[in-house]
């Protein structure tokens, strides 16, 4: 008798990947459920809108299902999926006009302004300025920054995701941070 979905949820990613590579759709479904939230957040931060992000993640998951026999386990499933999603997002960004409208990511205020409209407006304006500054980064820099600052990946993991050396990742992060600091200087 096979395991139930609840039993599969208790397995670690390595076992689920092995089972999915053998064609176990239930194991793949658990992996999708476990990782789709962070993958969608990554795609959203790279593309700036939910429909494109959802499509990129869906395409990445379909690609992963088809490419499981190629998965060697050199990296974790999470890192492998981040690479597929990142590449998909970079392809989407290359294929569309640079003037694509990106709505500001609504971020909850770090501190309740307590009814202070001026402070709330200033926080919203600062968030919009940061969103614009991120939008203006080169796609490769933006990918590295999002993976590091929003998803907490290590330099080694980011290097694997973007297919570059750790030194290249560090350089891209340095340039991205420098650009963001310059763009956000008036908000300090």
Textual characterization of the structure:
The chain is an all-alpha fold. The chain has nine helices and no strands. It has helices at residues 5-9, 13-21, 25-47, 50-67, 77-94, 117-136, 139-150, 155-162, 166-183.
How many E strands? 0
How large a portion of the residues is in β-strands, by DSSP E? under 5%
Poorly predicted parts: 97-113
Mean pLDDT: 82
Separate helix tally: 9
Largest sheet: none
- Report helical residue fraction: 55-70%
Query: What string gives the helices and strands in order?
Result: HHHHHHHHH
Cα-based radius of gyration, to the nearest Å = 19 Å
Distance between the termini: 61 Å
Principal-axes shape call: elongated
What class would the helix/strand composition place it in?
mainly alpha
């Amino acid at each position: 008798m096979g395991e139930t979905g609840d039993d599969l949820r208790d397995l670690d990613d390595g076992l689920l990947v092995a089972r999915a590579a053998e064609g176990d759709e239930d194991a793949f479904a658990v992996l999708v459920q476990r990782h789709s939230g962070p993958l969608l957040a990554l795609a959203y931060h790279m593309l700036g809108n939910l429909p494109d992000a959802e499509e990129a993640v869906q395409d990445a998951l379909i690609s992963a299902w088809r490419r499981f026999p190629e998965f060697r386990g050199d990296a974790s499933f999470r890192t492998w999926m981040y690479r597929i999603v990142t590449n998909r997002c970079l392809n989407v960004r290359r294929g569309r006009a640079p003037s694509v409208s990106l709505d500001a990511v609504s971020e909850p205020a770090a501190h309740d302004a307590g009814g202070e409209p001026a402070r709330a407006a200033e926080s919203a304006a600062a968030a919009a300025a940061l969103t614009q500054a991120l939008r203006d980064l080169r796609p490769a820099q933006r990918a590295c920054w999002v993976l590091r600052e929003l998803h907490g990946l290590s330099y080694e993991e980011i290097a694997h995701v973007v297919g570059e050396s750790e030194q290249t990742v560090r350089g891209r992060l340095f340039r991205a941070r420098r650009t963001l600091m310059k763009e956000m200087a008036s908000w300090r």
